[in-house]
Amino acid sequence: MAMTRDVVMRVEKISIVRDGVTVISDFDAQFVRGTISAIIGANGSGKSSLLGAMSGVLPISRGVITLNDKNLNDITIVDQSRVRSVVAQNQRYTLGFSVSEILSLGSPSMPRDLFEATLEKVGSLDLADRSVLSLSGGERQRISIAHALIQDRDLILLDEPLSAQDPASAARLIEIFKELRQSGKTIIFVAHMQESDLLWCDQIVKTLAQ
Amino acid sequence: MTGHSFRSSLSLLVLMLVASVLALSLGAADIAGTWSAILHPFTSTDSQAHQIIWQIRAPRIATALLVGAALGVAGALAQGSTNNPLAEPAILGTAAGAGLGVLVGVLCNLASIGSIGAVLFATIGALLTTLLVFELSHRNGTTTALQLIIVGIALSAVISAIVGLTISMVARPDARSVSFWSLGSLALVQSEDLLHLAPVIVLAIIAAFVIAKPLDLLSLGDSTAQTLGANPKRVRLVAFLVLSILVATSVSTVGTIAFLGLAAPHIARFIAGPGHRKLVIASAFIGAIMLLVADTFARSIAPPNELPIGLITSLIGAPVLIYLVRSRRQVWL
Questions:
Q1: At A71, is the secondary structure helix, strand, or coil?
Q2: Which residues of A touch B273 (CB under 8 A)?
Q3: B142 lies within 8 A of chain A by CB
Protein backbone atom coordinates (compact mmCIF):
# COMPACT_ATOMS: atom_id res chain seq x y z
CA MET A 1 0.00 0.00 0.00
CA ALA A 2 2.89 2.32 0.75
CA MET A 3 4.04 1.96 -2.86
CA THR A 4 0.54 2.72 -4.16
CA ARG A 5 0.46 5.96 -2.19
CA ASP A 6 3.76 7.05 -3.66
CA VAL A 7 2.57 6.73 -7.23
CA VAL A 8 1.39 10.18 -8.37
CA MET A 9 0.27 9.20 -11.83
CA ARG A 10 -0.57 5.81 -13.25
CA VAL A 11 -1.19 5.04 -16.91
CA GLU A 12 -2.97 1.69 -17.40
CA LYS A 13 -3.43 0.03 -20.78
CA ILE A 14 -4.30 3.26 -22.52
CA SER A 15 -4.83 3.77 -26.24
CA ILE A 16 -4.93 7.14 -27.96
CA VAL A 17 -6.46 7.59 -31.41
CA ARG A 18 -5.91 10.84 -33.31
CA ASP A 19 -7.58 11.51 -36.66
CA GLY A 20 -8.42 7.81 -36.96
CA VAL A 21 -4.82 6.71 -36.36
CA THR A 22 -3.80 4.84 -33.20
CA VAL A 23 -0.77 6.67 -31.84
CA ILE A 24 -0.54 4.92 -28.45
CA SER A 25 -1.76 1.38 -27.85
CA ASP A 26 -2.06 -0.62 -24.60
CA PHE A 27 0.46 1.60 -22.90
CA ASP A 28 1.40 1.21 -19.22
CA ALA A 29 3.55 3.40 -16.99
CA GLN A 30 3.66 4.73 -13.48
CA PHE A 31 5.31 7.77 -12.02
CA VAL A 32 6.51 7.86 -8.43
CA ARG A 33 6.41 10.97 -6.24
CA GLY A 34 9.68 12.88 -6.03
CA THR A 35 11.19 11.47 -9.20
CA ILE A 36 12.14 12.70 -12.65
CA SER A 37 10.87 10.65 -15.61
CA ALA A 38 11.72 11.16 -19.27
CA ILE A 39 9.43 9.94 -22.06
CA ILE A 40 11.43 9.14 -25.18
CA GLY A 41 10.64 7.53 -28.52
CA ALA A 42 10.96 7.98 -32.27
CA ASN A 43 9.20 10.77 -34.15
CA GLY A 44 5.50 10.00 -34.39
CA SER A 45 5.58 7.43 -31.58
CA GLY A 46 3.02 9.38 -29.58
CA LYS A 47 5.19 11.01 -26.89
CA SER A 48 3.40 14.35 -26.99
CA SER A 49 0.00 12.63 -27.31
CA LEU A 50 0.79 10.61 -24.19
CA LEU A 51 1.73 13.79 -22.31
CA GLY A 52 -1.42 15.48 -23.65
CA ALA A 53 -3.55 12.65 -22.28
CA MET A 54 -1.73 12.78 -18.95
CA SER A 55 -2.38 16.57 -18.90
CA GLY A 56 -6.11 15.90 -19.33
CA VAL A 57 -6.39 17.81 -22.61
CA LEU A 58 -6.40 14.82 -24.98
CA PRO A 59 -9.04 12.10 -24.66
CA ILE A 60 -8.01 8.44 -24.45
CA SER A 61 -9.97 5.78 -26.30
CA ARG A 62 -9.16 2.95 -23.89
CA GLY A 63 -7.59 2.40 -20.49
CA VAL A 64 -7.32 4.59 -17.41
CA ILE A 65 -5.06 7.40 -16.23
CA THR A 66 -5.06 8.10 -12.50
CA LEU A 67 -3.83 11.16 -10.66
CA ASN A 68 -3.27 10.53 -6.95
CA ASP A 69 -5.28 7.28 -7.32
CA LYS A 70 -8.32 9.03 -8.83
CA ASN A 71 -9.43 8.55 -12.42
CA LEU A 72 -8.31 11.69 -14.28
CA ASN A 73 -11.70 11.84 -16.05
CA ASP A 74 -13.41 12.23 -12.67
CA ILE A 75 -11.27 15.18 -11.57
CA THR A 76 -12.51 18.64 -12.61
CA ILE A 77 -10.35 20.90 -14.75
CA VAL A 78 -9.91 23.26 -11.81
CA ASP A 79 -8.90 20.47 -9.41
CA GLN A 80 -6.43 19.05 -11.93
CA SER A 81 -4.87 22.49 -12.28
CA ARG A 82 -4.39 22.67 -8.49
CA VAL A 83 -2.27 19.52 -8.50
CA ARG A 84 -0.23 19.71 -11.68
CA SER A 85 1.15 22.25 -14.11
CA VAL A 86 1.95 21.72 -17.78
CA VAL A 87 4.56 23.23 -20.08
CA ALA A 88 3.58 23.02 -23.76
CA GLN A 89 6.17 22.18 -26.40
CA ASN A 90 5.82 25.39 -28.35
CA GLN A 91 3.71 27.85 -26.40
CA ARG A 92 2.33 30.46 -28.77
CA TYR A 93 1.24 33.89 -27.66
CA THR A 94 -1.27 35.90 -29.65
CA LEU A 95 -1.67 38.99 -27.47
CA GLY A 96 1.02 41.48 -26.49
CA PHE A 97 1.09 40.80 -22.75
CA SER A 98 4.36 41.52 -20.95
CA VAL A 99 6.22 38.53 -19.53
CA SER A 100 5.19 39.58 -15.99
CA GLU A 101 1.53 39.76 -17.04
CA ILE A 102 1.71 36.29 -18.61
CA LEU A 103 3.23 34.85 -15.44
CA SER A 104 0.36 36.28 -13.39
CA LEU A 105 -2.30 34.53 -15.55
CA GLY A 106 -3.63 31.73 -13.42
CA SER A 107 -2.00 33.10 -10.25
CA PRO A 108 -2.98 36.78 -10.16
CA SER A 109 -2.31 37.46 -6.48
CA MET A 110 1.34 36.38 -6.58
CA PRO A 111 3.78 39.10 -5.41
CA ARG A 112 6.16 40.57 -8.00
CA ASP A 113 9.17 39.46 -5.90
CA LEU A 114 8.25 35.86 -6.60
CA PHE A 115 7.91 36.47 -10.34
CA GLU A 116 11.33 38.08 -10.39
CA ALA A 117 12.96 35.35 -8.30
CA THR A 118 11.53 32.69 -10.62
CA LEU A 119 12.58 34.55 -13.75
CA GLU A 120 16.08 34.88 -12.32
CA LYS A 121 16.12 31.15 -11.62
CA VAL A 122 15.45 30.31 -15.28
CA GLY A 123 17.94 33.00 -16.42
CA SER A 124 15.33 35.37 -17.84
CA LEU A 125 15.02 38.25 -15.37
CA ASP A 126 15.89 40.69 -18.15
CA LEU A 127 12.71 39.64 -19.98
CA ALA A 128 10.28 40.70 -17.19
CA ASP A 129 8.92 43.75 -18.98
CA ARG A 130 9.31 42.53 -22.56
CA SER A 131 6.29 41.74 -24.72
CA VAL A 132 5.89 37.98 -25.11
CA LEU A 133 5.42 38.55 -28.85
CA SER A 134 9.07 39.58 -29.13
CA LEU A 135 10.53 36.44 -27.52
CA SER A 136 12.63 33.82 -29.31
CA GLY A 137 11.70 30.13 -29.16
CA GLY A 138 14.16 29.42 -26.35
CA GLU A 139 12.99 32.46 -24.37
CA ARG A 140 9.34 31.44 -24.76
CA GLN A 141 10.21 27.99 -23.50
CA ARG A 142 11.93 29.38 -20.39
CA ILE A 143 8.99 31.69 -19.70
CA SER A 144 6.60 28.70 -19.96
CA ILE A 145 8.77 26.82 -17.48
CA ALA A 146 8.82 29.86 -15.15
CA HIS A 147 5.00 29.99 -15.45
CA ALA A 148 4.81 26.35 -14.32
CA LEU A 149 7.28 26.93 -11.45
CA ILE A 150 5.28 29.90 -10.13
CA GLN A 151 2.19 27.73 -9.84
CA ASP A 152 4.15 25.51 -7.42
CA ARG A 153 2.29 22.26 -8.14
CA ASP A 154 3.25 18.75 -6.98
CA LEU A 155 3.38 17.35 -10.50
CA ILE A 156 4.95 19.12 -13.48
CA LEU A 157 4.50 17.80 -17.03
CA LEU A 158 6.76 19.28 -19.72
CA ASP A 159 6.81 18.68 -23.48
CA GLU A 160 10.39 18.86 -24.78
CA PRO A 161 11.49 21.58 -22.32
CA LEU A 162 15.14 21.41 -23.35
CA SER A 163 14.75 21.32 -27.14
CA ALA A 164 15.32 25.02 -27.89
CA GLN A 165 17.91 25.68 -25.16
CA ASP A 166 21.63 26.31 -25.57
CA PRO A 167 23.86 23.99 -23.47
CA ALA A 168 24.22 26.47 -20.59
CA SER A 169 20.47 27.12 -20.35
CA ALA A 170 19.71 23.39 -20.62
CA ALA A 171 22.16 22.67 -17.79
CA ARG A 172 20.51 25.37 -15.67
CA LEU A 173 17.05 23.90 -16.27
CA ILE A 174 18.27 20.38 -15.42
CA GLU A 175 19.58 21.74 -12.10
CA ILE A 176 16.15 23.29 -11.45
CA PHE A 177 14.46 19.92 -12.12
CA LYS A 178 16.83 18.23 -9.67
CA GLU A 179 16.06 20.87 -7.02
CA LEU A 180 12.34 20.32 -7.55
CA ARG A 181 12.83 16.56 -7.14
CA GLN A 182 14.71 17.26 -3.93
CA SER A 183 11.70 19.16 -2.61
CA GLY A 184 9.37 16.24 -3.38
CA LYS A 185 7.97 17.39 -6.73
CA THR A 186 7.41 14.92 -9.54
CA ILE A 187 8.71 15.82 -13.00
CA ILE A 188 7.62 14.06 -16.19
CA PHE A 189 8.96 15.37 -19.47
CA VAL A 190 9.05 14.42 -23.12
CA ALA A 191 12.58 14.41 -24.53
CA HIS A 192 14.07 14.04 -27.94
CA MET A 193 17.39 12.88 -26.54
CA GLN A 194 19.60 9.82 -26.31
CA GLU A 195 19.21 7.62 -23.22
CA SER A 196 22.87 8.28 -22.44
CA ASP A 197 22.08 12.01 -22.04
CA LEU A 198 19.31 11.28 -19.56
CA LEU A 199 21.25 9.46 -16.88
CA TRP A 200 20.23 12.14 -14.34
CA CYS A 201 16.60 10.98 -14.63
CA ASP A 202 15.13 8.31 -12.33
CA GLN A 203 13.07 6.63 -15.03
CA ILE A 204 12.99 6.50 -18.81
CA VAL A 205 9.70 5.56 -20.47
CA LYS A 206 9.74 4.59 -24.13
CA THR A 207 6.88 4.96 -26.60
CA LEU A 208 6.89 2.76 -29.70
CA ALA A 209 5.86 3.75 -33.22
CA GLN A 210 2.57 1.96 -34.03
CA MET B 1 -7.40 49.44 -11.59
CA THR B 2 -3.93 50.97 -11.97
CA GLY B 3 -3.33 54.72 -12.17
CA HIS B 4 -2.62 54.54 -15.89
CA SER B 5 -5.78 52.62 -16.77
CA PHE B 6 -7.88 54.85 -14.50
CA ARG B 7 -6.55 57.93 -16.32
CA SER B 8 -7.23 56.26 -19.69
CA SER B 9 -10.83 55.45 -18.72
CA LEU B 10 -11.33 58.96 -17.35
CA SER B 11 -9.94 60.52 -20.56
CA LEU B 12 -12.27 58.36 -22.68
CA LEU B 13 -15.23 59.27 -20.45
CA VAL B 14 -14.46 63.01 -20.81
CA LEU B 15 -14.04 62.58 -24.57
CA MET B 16 -17.39 60.79 -24.76
CA LEU B 17 -19.14 63.53 -22.75
CA VAL B 18 -17.63 66.31 -24.89
CA ALA B 19 -18.63 64.47 -28.08
CA SER B 20 -22.16 64.03 -26.68
CA VAL B 21 -22.57 67.73 -25.94
CA LEU B 22 -21.24 68.66 -29.39
CA ALA B 23 -23.62 66.12 -30.95
CA LEU B 24 -26.53 67.76 -29.09
CA SER B 25 -25.63 71.08 -30.73
CA LEU B 26 -25.31 69.72 -34.28
CA GLY B 27 -28.08 68.68 -36.62
CA ALA B 28 -30.11 69.26 -39.76
CA ALA B 29 -32.37 71.84 -38.14
CA ASP B 30 -30.93 75.33 -37.82
CA ILE B 31 -32.37 76.32 -34.48
CA ALA B 32 -32.03 79.43 -32.40
CA GLY B 33 -31.02 79.19 -28.72
CA THR B 34 -29.24 75.85 -29.10
CA TRP B 35 -26.65 76.34 -26.34
CA SER B 36 -29.15 77.91 -23.99
CA ALA B 37 -31.38 74.82 -24.36
CA ILE B 38 -28.39 72.48 -23.87
CA LEU B 39 -27.16 74.30 -20.77
CA HIS B 40 -30.65 74.58 -19.23
CA PRO B 41 -32.27 71.19 -19.76
CA PHE B 42 -35.02 71.78 -17.18
CA THR B 43 -36.18 75.27 -18.17
CA SER B 44 -38.17 76.53 -21.21
CA THR B 45 -39.07 72.93 -21.95
CA ASP B 46 -41.71 73.89 -24.50
CA SER B 47 -39.36 75.86 -26.77
CA GLN B 48 -38.63 74.44 -30.21
CA ALA B 49 -34.90 74.26 -29.49
CA HIS B 50 -35.52 72.36 -26.26
CA GLN B 51 -37.83 69.86 -27.94
CA ILE B 52 -35.46 69.16 -30.85
CA ILE B 53 -32.43 68.83 -28.60
CA TRP B 54 -33.86 66.88 -25.66
CA GLN B 55 -36.66 64.89 -27.28
CA ILE B 56 -35.17 64.09 -30.70
CA ARG B 57 -31.39 64.39 -30.52
CA ALA B 58 -30.77 63.24 -26.92
CA PRO B 59 -32.48 59.80 -27.26
CA ARG B 60 -30.67 59.27 -30.55
CA ILE B 61 -27.32 60.18 -28.95
CA ALA B 62 -28.01 57.88 -26.00
CA THR B 63 -28.86 55.07 -28.44
CA ALA B 64 -25.66 55.69 -30.43
CA LEU B 65 -23.60 55.51 -27.22
CA LEU B 66 -25.31 52.30 -26.03
CA VAL B 67 -25.22 50.50 -29.38
CA GLY B 68 -21.65 51.66 -30.04
CA ALA B 69 -20.56 50.37 -26.61
CA ALA B 70 -22.41 47.10 -27.26
CA LEU B 71 -20.73 46.57 -30.63
CA GLY B 72 -17.29 47.51 -29.27
CA VAL B 73 -17.62 44.98 -26.44
CA ALA B 74 -19.12 42.41 -28.84
CA GLY B 75 -16.02 42.76 -31.01
CA ALA B 76 -13.71 42.33 -28.00
CA LEU B 77 -15.63 39.17 -27.01
CA ALA B 78 -15.58 37.82 -30.58
CA GLN B 79 -11.82 38.33 -30.88
CA GLY B 80 -11.01 37.14 -27.35
CA SER B 81 -13.20 34.03 -27.35
CA THR B 82 -11.96 32.78 -30.74
CA ASN B 83 -8.40 34.03 -30.17
CA ASN B 84 -8.65 35.56 -33.61
CA PRO B 85 -7.85 39.21 -34.45
CA LEU B 86 -10.19 39.21 -37.45
CA ALA B 87 -13.26 37.96 -35.61
CA GLU B 88 -16.21 40.31 -35.31
CA PRO B 89 -20.00 39.85 -35.19
CA ALA B 90 -20.38 40.12 -38.98
CA ILE B 91 -17.60 37.60 -39.67
CA LEU B 92 -18.77 35.10 -37.03
CA GLY B 93 -22.26 35.03 -38.53
CA THR B 94 -23.71 36.55 -35.34
CA ALA B 95 -25.32 39.52 -37.10
CA ALA B 96 -26.78 37.42 -39.97
CA GLY B 97 -28.08 34.85 -37.47
CA ALA B 98 -29.82 37.61 -35.51
CA GLY B 99 -31.69 38.65 -38.67
CA LEU B 100 -32.73 35.06 -39.42
CA GLY B 101 -33.90 34.59 -35.82
CA VAL B 102 -36.20 37.59 -35.97
CA LEU B 103 -37.57 36.58 -39.37
CA VAL B 104 -38.46 33.12 -38.02
CA GLY B 105 -40.11 34.70 -34.97
CA VAL B 106 -42.13 37.13 -37.11
CA LEU B 107 -43.23 34.54 -39.71
CA CYS B 108 -44.30 32.12 -36.98
CA ASN B 109 -46.32 34.94 -35.37
CA LEU B 110 -44.33 34.54 -32.16
CA ALA B 111 -42.75 38.01 -32.16
CA SER B 112 -43.32 41.42 -33.70
CA ILE B 113 -40.67 43.79 -35.00
CA GLY B 114 -39.31 46.10 -32.30
CA SER B 115 -40.54 43.95 -29.40
CA ILE B 116 -38.55 42.18 -26.68
CA GLY B 117 -39.72 38.93 -28.33
CA ALA B 118 -37.86 39.97 -31.47
CA VAL B 119 -34.71 40.57 -29.43
CA LEU B 120 -35.10 37.10 -27.92
CA PHE B 121 -35.44 35.45 -31.33
CA ALA B 122 -32.52 37.53 -32.62
CA THR B 123 -30.40 36.32 -29.68
CA ILE B 124 -31.26 32.67 -30.33
CA GLY B 125 -30.52 33.02 -34.06
CA ALA B 126 -27.26 34.87 -33.32
CA LEU B 127 -26.07 32.30 -30.77
CA LEU B 128 -26.93 29.24 -32.90
CA THR B 129 -25.24 30.70 -35.98
CA THR B 130 -22.11 31.69 -34.05
CA LEU B 131 -21.85 28.20 -32.55
CA LEU B 132 -22.41 26.63 -35.98
CA VAL B 133 -19.67 28.78 -37.57
CA PHE B 134 -17.26 27.84 -34.80
CA GLU B 135 -18.07 24.12 -35.03
CA LEU B 136 -17.87 24.01 -38.84
CA SER B 137 -14.47 25.74 -38.78
CA HIS B 138 -13.14 23.27 -36.21
CA ARG B 139 -10.95 20.61 -37.75
CA ASN B 140 -8.73 18.13 -35.94
CA GLY B 141 -9.43 19.82 -32.64
CA THR B 142 -8.27 23.27 -33.73
CA THR B 143 -9.56 26.26 -35.65
CA THR B 144 -7.20 28.39 -37.68
CA ALA B 145 -7.91 32.09 -38.17
CA LEU B 146 -8.41 31.50 -41.87
CA GLN B 147 -10.85 28.59 -41.45
CA LEU B 148 -12.98 30.64 -39.06
CA ILE B 149 -13.09 33.64 -41.39
CA ILE B 150 -13.91 31.61 -44.52
CA VAL B 151 -16.64 29.56 -42.81
CA GLY B 152 -18.04 32.70 -41.12
CA ILE B 153 -18.23 34.68 -44.37
CA ALA B 154 -19.72 31.71 -46.25
CA LEU B 155 -22.37 30.91 -43.64
CA SER B 156 -23.26 34.60 -43.25
CA ALA B 157 -23.77 34.79 -47.02
CA VAL B 158 -26.01 31.69 -46.99
CA ILE B 159 -28.10 33.03 -44.11
CA SER B 160 -28.38 36.52 -45.61
CA ALA B 161 -29.48 34.92 -48.89
CA ILE B 162 -32.13 32.83 -47.10
CA VAL B 163 -33.39 35.95 -45.27
CA GLY B 164 -33.40 38.00 -48.49
CA LEU B 165 -35.19 35.35 -50.56
CA THR B 166 -37.76 34.70 -47.85
CA ILE B 167 -38.53 38.42 -47.51
CA SER B 168 -38.90 38.69 -51.30
CA MET B 169 -41.28 35.74 -51.44
CA VAL B 170 -43.62 36.51 -48.55
CA ALA B 171 -46.13 39.30 -48.88
CA ARG B 172 -45.98 40.50 -45.29
CA PRO B 173 -44.81 44.08 -44.71
CA ASP B 174 -43.54 43.32 -41.20
CA ALA B 175 -41.21 40.65 -42.60
CA ARG B 176 -40.01 43.13 -45.21
CA SER B 177 -38.96 45.55 -42.51
CA VAL B 178 -36.28 43.03 -41.48
CA SER B 179 -34.47 43.96 -44.69
CA PHE B 180 -33.91 47.45 -43.31
CA TRP B 181 -31.50 45.85 -40.87
CA SER B 182 -28.86 45.42 -43.54
CA LEU B 183 -28.80 49.22 -43.84
CA GLY B 184 -28.06 50.31 -40.30
CA SER B 185 -29.58 53.63 -39.25
CA LEU B 186 -30.42 55.46 -36.06
CA ALA B 187 -33.02 57.66 -37.80
CA LEU B 188 -36.00 55.60 -36.65
CA VAL B 189 -34.96 55.22 -33.02
CA GLN B 190 -37.67 56.09 -30.46
CA SER B 191 -36.95 57.14 -26.90
CA GLU B 192 -38.99 54.09 -25.73
CA ASP B 193 -36.35 51.85 -27.39
CA LEU B 194 -33.94 52.99 -24.69
CA LEU B 195 -36.07 51.32 -22.03
CA HIS B 196 -35.15 47.81 -23.15
CA LEU B 197 -31.86 48.71 -24.84
CA ALA B 198 -30.17 50.25 -21.81
CA PRO B 199 -30.64 47.53 -19.16
CA VAL B 200 -29.90 44.64 -21.53
CA ILE B 201 -26.72 46.23 -22.90
CA VAL B 202 -25.46 47.38 -19.49
CA LEU B 203 -26.02 43.91 -17.97
CA ALA B 204 -24.35 42.20 -20.95
CA ILE B 205 -21.30 44.49 -20.69
CA ILE B 206 -21.04 43.67 -16.96
CA ALA B 207 -21.18 39.95 -17.90
CA ALA B 208 -18.39 40.53 -20.44
CA PHE B 209 -16.32 42.13 -17.67
CA VAL B 210 -16.90 39.09 -15.44
CA ILE B 211 -15.56 36.61 -18.02
CA ALA B 212 -12.61 38.85 -18.91
CA LYS B 213 -10.01 36.93 -16.86
CA PRO B 214 -10.80 33.52 -18.42
CA LEU B 215 -10.61 35.21 -21.84
CA ASP B 216 -7.03 36.23 -21.00
CA LEU B 217 -6.26 32.54 -20.41
CA LEU B 218 -7.87 31.58 -23.75
CA SER B 219 -5.27 33.73 -25.52
CA LEU B 220 -2.71 31.07 -24.54
CA GLY B 221 -4.61 28.45 -26.56
CA ASP B 222 -7.26 26.01 -25.38
CA SER B 223 -4.85 23.36 -24.07
CA THR B 224 -2.77 25.75 -21.97
CA ALA B 225 -5.91 27.55 -20.76
CA GLN B 226 -7.34 24.21 -19.64
CA THR B 227 -4.16 23.17 -17.82
CA LEU B 228 -4.36 26.51 -15.96
CA GLY B 229 -7.87 25.69 -14.75
CA ALA B 230 -10.15 27.36 -17.33
CA ASN B 231 -12.78 25.41 -19.25
CA PRO B 232 -12.34 26.79 -22.79
CA LYS B 233 -15.62 25.41 -24.15
CA ARG B 234 -17.64 26.85 -21.28
CA VAL B 235 -15.89 30.24 -21.40
CA ARG B 236 -16.46 30.40 -25.17
CA LEU B 237 -20.12 29.43 -24.83
CA VAL B 238 -20.72 32.19 -22.25
CA ALA B 239 -18.81 34.68 -24.42
CA PHE B 240 -20.88 33.70 -27.48
CA LEU B 241 -24.09 34.08 -25.46
CA VAL B 242 -23.16 37.57 -24.23
CA LEU B 243 -21.94 38.49 -27.72
CA SER B 244 -25.23 37.28 -29.20
CA ILE B 245 -27.29 39.29 -26.72
CA LEU B 246 -25.28 42.45 -27.46
CA VAL B 247 -25.50 42.02 -31.23
CA ALA B 248 -29.16 40.95 -31.23
CA THR B 249 -30.18 43.93 -29.10
CA SER B 250 -28.21 46.34 -31.29
CA VAL B 251 -29.22 44.88 -34.64
CA SER B 252 -32.90 44.69 -33.74
CA THR B 253 -32.85 48.40 -32.79
CA VAL B 254 -30.63 50.08 -35.39
CA GLY B 255 -29.70 47.36 -37.93
CA THR B 256 -26.22 46.20 -38.90
CA ILE B 257 -23.40 48.69 -38.38
CA ALA B 258 -20.27 47.81 -40.33
CA PHE B 259 -16.71 47.72 -39.05
CA LEU B 260 -17.27 48.92 -35.49
CA GLY B 261 -16.95 45.48 -33.87
CA LEU B 262 -13.66 44.90 -35.66
CA ALA B 263 -12.08 48.34 -35.24
CA ALA B 264 -13.10 49.37 -31.70
CA PRO B 265 -11.28 46.56 -29.81
CA HIS B 266 -8.12 47.00 -31.90
CA ILE B 267 -8.08 50.74 -31.19
CA ALA B 268 -8.91 50.04 -27.52
CA ARG B 269 -5.99 47.60 -27.26
CA PHE B 270 -3.55 50.44 -27.99
CA ILE B 271 -4.99 52.43 -25.10
CA ALA B 272 -5.75 49.69 -22.57
CA GLY B 273 -3.36 46.88 -23.51
CA PRO B 274 -4.33 43.26 -24.16
CA GLY B 275 -5.89 42.33 -20.77
CA HIS B 276 -9.63 41.82 -21.27
CA ARG B 277 -10.86 43.65 -18.15
CA LYS B 278 -9.42 46.95 -19.30
CA LEU B 279 -10.12 46.04 -22.91
CA VAL B 280 -13.86 45.55 -22.32
CA ILE B 281 -14.13 49.00 -20.70
CA ALA B 282 -12.01 50.72 -23.35
CA SER B 283 -13.83 48.95 -26.22
CA ALA B 284 -17.16 50.13 -24.81
CA PHE B 285 -15.94 53.74 -24.72
CA ILE B 286 -14.27 53.62 -28.14
CA GLY B 287 -17.30 51.93 -29.74
CA ALA B 288 -19.64 54.48 -28.15
CA ILE B 289 -17.55 57.46 -29.29
CA MET B 290 -17.09 56.06 -32.83
CA LEU B 291 -20.80 55.43 -33.37
CA LEU B 292 -21.77 58.79 -31.90
CA VAL B 293 -19.31 60.66 -34.15
CA ALA B 294 -20.41 58.60 -37.18
CA ASP B 295 -24.11 59.21 -36.49
CA THR B 296 -23.55 62.92 -35.91
CA PHE B 297 -21.76 63.15 -39.27
CA ALA B 298 -24.48 61.04 -40.91
CA ARG B 299 -27.26 63.39 -39.85
CA SER B 300 -25.51 66.78 -40.08
CA ILE B 301 -23.15 66.76 -43.08
CA ALA B 302 -25.68 66.94 -45.90
CA PRO B 303 -29.04 67.93 -44.38
CA PRO B 304 -31.80 67.04 -44.85
CA ASN B 305 -30.34 63.81 -46.25
CA GLU B 306 -29.10 61.14 -43.85
CA LEU B 307 -25.92 59.42 -44.96
CA PRO B 308 -25.58 55.62 -44.46
CA ILE B 309 -23.95 55.28 -41.04
CA GLY B 310 -22.11 52.03 -41.85
CA LEU B 311 -20.14 53.84 -44.55
CA ILE B 312 -19.14 56.54 -42.07
CA THR B 313 -18.03 54.06 -39.37
CA SER B 314 -15.85 52.42 -42.03
CA LEU B 315 -14.52 55.78 -43.20
CA ILE B 316 -13.56 56.83 -39.65
CA GLY B 317 -12.51 53.47 -38.25
CA ALA B 318 -10.44 51.99 -41.07
CA PRO B 319 -7.81 54.76 -41.44
CA VAL B 320 -7.36 54.93 -37.64
CA LEU B 321 -6.88 51.17 -37.53
CA ILE B 322 -4.38 51.19 -40.40
CA TYR B 323 -2.41 54.01 -38.75
CA LEU B 324 -2.30 52.21 -35.40
CA VAL B 325 -1.26 48.88 -36.91
CA ARG B 326 1.54 50.55 -38.90
CA SER B 327 2.81 52.74 -36.08
CA ARG B 328 3.07 49.95 -33.47
CA ARG B 329 3.42 46.43 -34.70
CA GLN B 330 3.01 44.38 -31.55
CA VAL B 331 -0.76 44.43 -31.28
CA TRP B 332 -1.67 40.92 -32.12
CA LEU B 333 0.19 38.20 -34.06
A1: strand
A2: 96-97
A3: no
